[in-house]
Fold these 2 entries.
Entry 1:
Amino acid sequence: MSEPLPDFSHYEVAVVGDLVADRYVHAEPARVSREAPVLVLRWTGEELRPGGAANAARNLRALGARVRVLGCVGRDAVGRELLEVLEREQLDVSGIESLPGWTTPTKTRVLAAEPRRTPQQVFRIDREPVGPLPGPGAERLAIRLRELLGKVDAVLLSDYDYGAIGADCAQTLQVLRRGPIPIVLDPRHSLELMPGLLAATPNLEELAWAAHCDPRRLADPAELARVANALRERLGHRHLLVTQGNRGMTLFGVDQPALGLHVEPCGSEAVVDVSGAGDTAAAAFLLALTARCAAPQAMRIANAAAGVVVMKSGTAVCDRAELTAALAAAPAPREVLVHS
């Protein structure tokens, strides 16, 4: 029998990170072009969904938390549309800076299908900023984060390598770390920048990058444990939750077995779309830890939430009702054993 899901509505969370616009263009195949051997698609519609740190924020909101979003968008049409979507979803966007000359990171996915068929992604176009986040933008972001001291219950750092999680943010966190506020980092290449946190949630590639090793080595549970424990101890994180896609998650940390605790993936094997599942896992893990769940139970909650969103098309959220249902059938964490 699983433990009851905590009430997350008591908590206010700050999400700091790289805001991304995920645009989905829907189309039907029409014919082969006469101009080149390519398919001509007939446009049927499109939508914009929050991605990156914005997706983590909407997952926190879907689970009941109040959310303040800190980040930057360009002073462009996509940035304005992303802000409108976040406001409609009842997220506090007063901490978002609109920067002139900055391009809102946008991932455009073209999905094609005949009527009543499951859409398939044909290709993706990424529109990215030419350079790093401008210094004034990063500085104002750090100032806004400092202003939240004592006003939020937890902080989620969401790094997509566009500059929001950088040196200015790391300097501010030195102050935040001295207090009782839970801070969880979902890194890209920022693990080394952010020591001494409650937890970090890297995937295998991000862990390998931080440890300067070949990610293929981490398929061996003993090697994964060696690398993860060494990195966690060096950085001073209390917990390290390593997400592994269709192989589940493994937790390393204080009071955990040397080889970690592992949980198998939750849900059906017929995965629809893995986009944003890491955002969902990090959001659920942070909320569970903030609600004083033990780390293994927090991992189980994160795994169940991720199992919900991978069954949906596109960047998606897991709400409280879906998470409650998923937890009823979610696998329990088990100690990793290596047989000689």
Entry 2:
Amino acid sequence: MKKLLRLGFSIGLGALCIGILTLVASLLSWIKLVDVYTVVSSSVIAGVYIGVGVLGMLLGFIFYPKMMRGIAGGMKRIEAKLTQVPMQDVLSGILGLIVGLILALLLSTLINRIPIPWLSMLLSVIVYVLLGYLGVAVAVRRKSELGIVEKITEAKGAEEHEETEEEPAPRGTVTGRSRKKAERQKPPAPKILDTSVIIDGRVLAVANAGFLEGKIIVPSFVLQELRHIADSADALRRQRGRRGLDILQQMQQDSNRVVVIEKEYENTEVDEQLILLAKEMKGNIVTNDFNLNKVATVKGVKVLNINELASSLKPAVMPGEDMLLQIVREGKEPGQGVAYLEDGTMVVVDSGASHIGSTTSVYVTSVLQTAAGRMVFAKAN
């Protein structure tokens, strides 16, 4: 099958080369620059056509794998960029393009009266390209004045009003109108992962459990940062980077919702690029970074913090509660000891230094809860 596809691609490229040559020859004759078919003999023309066709077929056969990879990569990039464009911009752009091309058609009728064929053709092409571009650009920038959004909103409001007046369907049945309404519901916001949450790894379990709705976006600049960490000279950083790449690969295998997009903002830090991308895609940032959490929130971007989720799911520890803990090391202050709960929460035990290595009864004095995590303070009994 692959051989047939390769052969078909080669023949198609050869035919395309012949078609381009024919178009160029016809164009030269039409603008009266040179009449190829009268100046050159038919045998030479036939030889040139055959040579160009064979050359195109050979190029297609030799470079078929590279060309197909390039075409597939280009299509994926175009698809990724188009999915980021709001539907309002698409509709406005199409309307502006139509208006621009109509104006260009009217102007080209006047331009075609120029007695110099090549000049009239050149001016017509310039007018079509210029007015088409201006039509799209102006329509997208002034979309709020076109009334498209208002008409869509009014139509939706009228349908919802009709639904409220409609008699309720029997319980357990789904009406066609209700089904259409469900289909028109706004899709979940895309979830944009940062480097810290990928390396942490808990996002894999959260995604598999269904707590992350919508597309899971991994920007190219985050992937590049992961690669730099994985190639670090420091053994610990290198291990963390490779763990992050393994987690990302596992997420792609477990779900088809994980999308790597080619997007970068020049001369901008990774955190700022994440915020800009979230605003552009109207998405949420998923992170463990405390500082990114604060900055993104201030700039109006919704943040999903895995640490906050984990903290909210931890068993509650109340002041005054007694528990048995093993003191594992000394704390920062004199006389303090450090222990850990089963979920990994650090417990700072006052007067616990003398109990290092042993299991001791303590009672909780206070609990400090932040977006960065939770810390428990206790005192040895």
